[in-house]
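The aim of this short unit is practical: by the end, you should be able to scan a pair of folded records and say something sensible about each. We start with the first protein, listed as its amino acid sequence and then its C-alpha cells.
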Amino acid sequence: MKTCAACNVQFNDGVQCGGCKQHLDFGCANISEAGWRRLGANRMAQWKCPTCRMSSPAVPAPEPASLETILSEIRDMKRQLLSLPTLVDDIRVIKDELAELKITCEGTSGRLDEFDTRLAEVELKASELGKLQETVNCLQADLARSKYELATYEQRSRLNNVEIKGVPVRKDENLFSIIEAIGQKVNYTCPKSQVNYISRVPIFNSNEKLIIVSFLNRYVKEDFIAAARAVKDLSTSHIGFQGSSQRIYVNDHLSIEYKKLLSKVKIMAKEKYYEFVWVKHGKIHILKNTNSKVVIIRKESDLNKIV
C-alpha cells in the first residue's frame, strides 16, 4: 500500500513523480489510469506532478535577432540558392531519362508478352513431340518384334534343310548322286525317300552355288549333319571330282538374318575368347570353355550375353 502525497489516502496503484519521487493517486495526479499506461516506461520516468511543474524555472524568452544576424542568414540562403538552376536542370534531365526508361520498359513488356506467347507455343509443340516420341518408340518396339518373329519364322521353315558348300557346279550334274556320295564318305545312308527336294542356290556376290537339301524328317537331317561334321577332311576328291581338291562344308541352312547374326557372334566370341561357336536345330550356340554353360543367341539383343 502507498500513501498519496497530496490527500494522504492509501492506494494500491497510482503514479510517481519523476522530480520529487512522491507517489500520487490518479485523481490527485490529474491523469487517468489508461493515460498513465499509454505513456510507456521512458515517459513515466520523466513525468512530473503538478507541484513540480509549477516550481520549474521559466524558460527565458529569446532575444530579438539583430539586423546583422538577419542579413547574414539571407546571404547564406542566397549562396544556397545559387545552385538551384543547376539542380533544376539535373531534375529535368532525370525526368527525361525516366520518361525514356518508361518507354523502354513498355516496349520490353510488350516483347516479354510476345516471348511468353512463343514460349507457350514451343512448350505445346514440345508436349506434342513428347507424345509423338512415345508413339515412335512403341512403333519401333512393334517393328523390332515383328522383324524378330519374321526372322524366327523364316529360320523355322529351314529346320529340315541342309546347306552344302564347296561342291563345284558341273554340267548335267545329278544332285542326288552327290548326296549319295557324301553319305557314303561320312558313313550315313540317305535314301531318296527321305528327301523332300534338292536344288542349287546362288551365293550373293559369288559365282559359287550352294546345294540345299530339304529332308522330310528333321532327325534324319540332324544325323546327316552330325555324320558329315565328324569327317574333318571331307573334300571334293572324296565324291569323285578330279583336279585340285577343295573342302566341303555341311551345315544348317540359315536365313540371311541368322547368317548375319552368326557372323557377329563369331566376331564377338573371338574378342571375348570363347572357344566354341556352332549351330544346332537352327539355333546359334556358344561356349566359353568346357567348364562354362552354353549360351543360345536368338536375336541381336542376345549379344549382350557374350561377356
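Turning to the second protein, read its sequence before its C-alpha cells, just as you did above.
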Amino acid sequence: MALRGALSAAGRRWAQQRLCCTARGDTIFAVSSGHGRCGVAVIRTSGPGSRGALRSLTGRPELPPPRVLALRRIRDPATAEPLDRGLVVWFPGRLPGLRPAEPGEFTRRAFHRGKLDLTAAEGLGDLIHAETEAQRRQALRQMEGELGRLYQRWSETLTQALAHLEAYIDFSEDDNVEEEVLSQVDAAVRALEQELGAHLQDGRRGELLRGGVRAVIAGPPNVGKSSLLNLLCRRPAAIVSPVAGTTRDVVEVSLNVTGYPVVLSDTAGLRDATDPVEREGVSRARDRLQRADLVLAVLDATAVPAEPAGLGAAVGSLVPPAAPCILVLNKADLLGGDTGALRAACARGPPVPPATLLSCKTGDGIDRLLELLGQQLAQLCGDPLAGSPSLTQSRHSQHLGDCAAALARYGRHRARDLGLAAEQLRLARRHLGRITGHVGAEDVLDIIFRDFCVGK
C-alpha cells in the first residue's frame, strides 16, 4: 500500500518525525518532492503499515476510495492536534513482478519501439536540463522530431540514390535501367552535399545554445573586471581590491542573459607579470581568450584615447583577431560630465567594436551593456525557432562530417569505379543512420524493386 499527501512545510516536518518512529518492517516513507522550504510537499509511504498510518493521520476509520484523491485534515495521532489539511491517495496492494525503472528506461523503450529516434531522445534530455527559455525552445523543437526528420529526409535521398546506382550496376546491361539514372544520382548527391555543408557551417549555434556561450572578461589590471563580473551576476563572486593583480585564477559563473545561457569568466589582468603565481594567472587568461566565444574587453575610461583609431588599437591588443567583442569603458563616473568625445568615438563603429560607457560603482550604463550583450548572443546562438533546426551535439557534427567526406569521395570514384562510388553512398547513409539510430539495408532493396520492378 502507499500513501501520498500534499502537506505544508510544517506538516511535512511533523510527518517526517512521526512516521520515522512508526515505520517498522517493510513499511517505508520518503519525501517525494525534494527537500527545502516550500509551501507544499509530497510524502509517500509504502508497506503493510500504510493503511494504519493513513487512519492515524486523518483520524477517520474509513479510507478514501482506491486511487482517488481526497481532502483530509491531518492531525497528530497522539494528541489529535490538527496539523494541516492535505490531499491523500492510497493504492491497495501491488502488482507482482514489477520493479523500479532504471534511469532513462522509459525513453529507451520508446526508442526501441520506434516512437522516437536518438535525436528526439537527446532533445528530451536537453529539455529536462534546460535552464533558459532559448534552451527550452531548441530542446522542445528537437524532441518533437524536427532534427530527426531533417536527417531522415537526407537518409531517404541517399537510400534512393544508392538504390538507383546499384540497380544501374546490376541491370543496365539488360536495358532495364536508363543511363539518365546516373545523372539523377549525381544531381541528388550534389544537392545533398551542398545542403549538408550549409548545415555544418552554422557557426555552432545549436551547440552554443545547448552548452552556453563562453564569454570572457579581459583587460589590463585594475580596470574593474571583477567588479563587472559581480555586477552582472548580482553577487560578490569575485574579490574586488584596489590592488592591481588581485585576480590570479579564472572565476567562472553561469548566467541567463535575455534567455541565452552564458558561462562568464573573470580573468587575471593582462600584463607582463613578474610574480610566478600571477604569471600563471595571465597565462590562463590568454588561454581562455583563445577559446572564447565572446570577449568583454574592459578598459579604464579615464585612460583611453577619445578617438576611434586609438580605441580600436587598444582593443586589438587584448582581443584575438575576428573574435566577437564588446568594449566596456569602465569608471565612467570619474569622467564627470565630460563624456561626449568618448561616446562619439564609440558610436563611430569599426575599428571600434560595439561599445558602452559603464560605471560598475554606480551601475550607470548597465542597461546598455545588457542590450549589447543580448544582441551579440542572438547573433551567436540565433533564433531556435527560426529556419532549419541547428546542430546541438558534437556527435552529430562528427557523423555529418564523415557523411560529407564520403559524399566527396563519391565524386572522385564516380568516373573510375561505380562499385566504389556506391560504397561511399553506403557509408554516407550509415553515418546519417548512426545519428538517428536507424541503420538498415532493407530500405535499399525496397526502392530497387519499387522503382524498377526488376524481373517482371
